[in-house]
Amino acid sequence: MYLSGKGFRVHASAGGIDALAFAKSSTPDLVVLDLALPDVDGWEVARRLKSDAHTRDIPIIAFSGRTLQHEQVSALRAGCDVYLTKPCTPDKLLGAIRKLLGLPEPHVEPADIDPEPY
Fold this sequence. Notes:
The chain is α/β, with parallel strands linked by helices. It has one domain (about 1-100): 3-Layer(aba) Sandwich (Rossmann fold), CATH 3.40.50. Helices cover about 40% and strands about 10% of the residues. It is built from 5 helices and 3 strands; from the N terminus they run H-H-E-H-E-H-E-H. The protein has helices at about 1-5, 15-25, 40-50, 70-80, 90-100; strands at about 30-35, 60-65, 80-85. Helix 3 (about 40-50) links the parallel strand 1 and strand 2 (about 60-65). Helix 2 (about 15-25) packs parallel to helix 3 (about 40-50). The longest helix is centred in the last third of the chain and has 12 residues, at about 90-100. The protein is globular, with a radius of gyration of 15 Å.
């Protein structure tokens, strides 16, 4: 996975119930949450995480294919800190993670920058 390759420990949950149980038992530094989960939707997972004293301070990045403004507002009201729409570049996700965790941006040498982007 991309994030593992960047030095992050990653746990993938099968659904909302599994994600909630993992968050309560492990207290991750951050949750990347797909809003379209098979058992409990991401909005409900976010609400439950934010209503629990043990998990309320965990930052949440919502991931969704829904691009309508009210969907974003709904996710933020449920407790998500950032809303990213699919498709999302890995660098955009990494930037959001770094920002929420207070991590510095990596130093990029001019030679590392492709002069002809896609």
